[in-house]
Design goal:
The chain is an alpha+beta fold. The chain has helices at about 5-15, 20-60, 75-85, 120-125, 130, 150-155, 170-175, 200-205, 210-215, 240-250, 260-265, 265-305, 305-315, 320-355, 375-390, 395-400, 405-410; strands spanning about 65-70, 90-105, 110-115, 130-135, 145-150, 165, 185-195, 205-210, 230-235, 255-260. The chain has 17 helices and ten strands. A hairpin with a 2-residue loop joins strand 2 and strand 3 (about 110-115).
Length: about 400
């Protein structure tokens, strides 16, 4: 052990002549503990919420979606389907057609997104069929069936077996200027689903693909089986979504390829911003503790001025003196962060096992605050604490290294 390390540890363990210095050092240590514990707890809660959101979206949305760049219908759906299915990373793929329409039931009108699906293909990609709590999933041979979300069913006052009408936007403009009736089709509510996503439950309805093709086909134009918006795909490994996206962009240069992340990019970016802001705000607690460390070590330099002068007279270098105080700051940061991380881990484990902080299940879909602890977060938070505390020791370390030994021991 070098003399710098030995003296730094002795300074930390020894009783100070000035009691306020010891109190400030203790407050500094407690500040680091509280800051690191708070960071771990809050970030773990963010991780928990993000994990729940991701699970809900991934179970309901495809891993990869290919649509026309213009936002209209695919010009070559069979080719897109073949290219997507040819990739070894793709487990399964299916076509879909979606559009906005007006749904009418018992005098109640709602603008919704009507999605035409292939039931067999959708079951292999989405958890829609497992989310049907009332009634049953779509019958592939029936084009007069519809599945709606629980929130939409509540707004319409509809139950399984009721008949509802969908007014297609196709031909509405023509009906305003000519004697022309817009397309209207009646459907029987065959199932009501609950996806745990309020947007889906309130604004999405599902029918068989041929029924959607009829609804959204232009007036006086024969219904085409190739009229689809895009192709959805599910991968064997969702972690390869970006890799598959890059391949498909080369294979299908005229189409838009999106991953599950891209489909909800705004949501994930907002969650990322919240996470970064939480890091910054809670790091201020550690920063305040660092100012205490700065004050404590500066007072120590004043208290140990004679001893520093004697050491320099005996041959201690400026870098050696600086190292003493830098090590003191680093040690406070290290011990404080280790204890804080342990406290944060303990609180997180307690929340996972005992659900100490509960949520109202009438408002939230989960009974308690979710917690997901990642090793990377512990490493990052620990490094942040040690770095901030080490930087706080920089000023007193430089001040100590510049003490003139002759002035320090002159009156001794």
């Amino acid at each position: 052990m070098s003399y710098s390390s030995f003296i730094a540890l002795r300074y930390l363990k020894s009783k100070r002549k000035t009691a306020s210095v010891s109190i400030i050092s203790l407050i500094s240590l407690l500040g680091v503990i509280v800051g690191t514990a708070a960071l771990i707890i809050v970030i773990s809660v963010f991780n928990g919420f993000q994990g729940i959101v991701t699970d809900i979206l991934i179970n309901f949305d495809p891993h990869i979606r290919v649509t026309a760049e213009s936002g209209e219908y695919l010009s070559h759906p069979e080719k897109v389907m073949a290219e997507v299915s040819s990739l070894r990373e793709v487990r399964t793929a299916t076509m879909f057609l979606s559009g906005k329409a007006m749904i009418v039931s018992g005098g109640v009108n709602r603008a919704v997104n009507v999605v035409g699906i292939v039931p067999e293909g959708n079951e292999r990609i989405s958890s829609l069929s497992q989310s049907v709590g009332l009634g049953k999933f779509l019958d592939p041979g029936r084009n007069d069936q519809i599945i709606i979300g629980l929130s939409l069913a509540d707004a319409l006052g509809a139950v399984v077996g009721d008949s509802i009408a969908i007014i297609s936007p196709a031909g509405i403009e023509r009906s305003l200027t000519q004697f022309y009736q817009p397309k209207v089709q009646k459907f029987a509510v065959t199932g009501i689903y609950q996806s745990q996503n309020k947007d889906y439950d309130a604004y999405y309805a599902y029918v068989n693909l041929p029924a959607a093709q009829y609804l959204f086909s232009p007036p006086d134009v024969p219904v085409s089986p190739s009229m689809v918006n895009g192709v959805d795909a599910k991968l064997y490994d969702i972690g390869k979504a970006n890799e598959v996206k890059a391949k498909l962009e080369k294979m299908l240069p005229g189409d838009r390829v999106e991953t599950w992340y891209d489909l909800h990019k705004d949501l994930y970016e907002m969650m990322t911003i919240e996470r970064v802001v939480a890091y910054i705000v809670l790091s201020l607690i550690i920063l305040i503790a660092a100012f205490n460390i700065l004050g404590s070590l500066t007072m120590t330099v004043i208290e140990k001025r004679r001893e520093i002068g004697v050491m320099k007279a005996m041959g201690a270098t400026e870098s050696g003196i600086m190292k003493i105080y830098m090590l003191e700051g680093a040690v406070i940061g290290l011990f404080g962060s280790l204890i804080g991380l342990a406290v944060g881990f303990g609180v997180g484990e307690a929340q996972i096992k005992y659900q100490l902080f509960k949520l109202d299940t009438n408002v939230y879909i989960i009974p308690a605050l979710p917690v997901s602890m990642h090793v990377s977060d512990f490493i990052i938070v620990g490094i942040i604490a040690v770095v901030i505390c080490s930087l706080a020791a920089l000023y007193p370390a430089k001040r100590a290294s510049r003490i003139d030994p002759a002035d320090a021991v002159r009156w001794e």
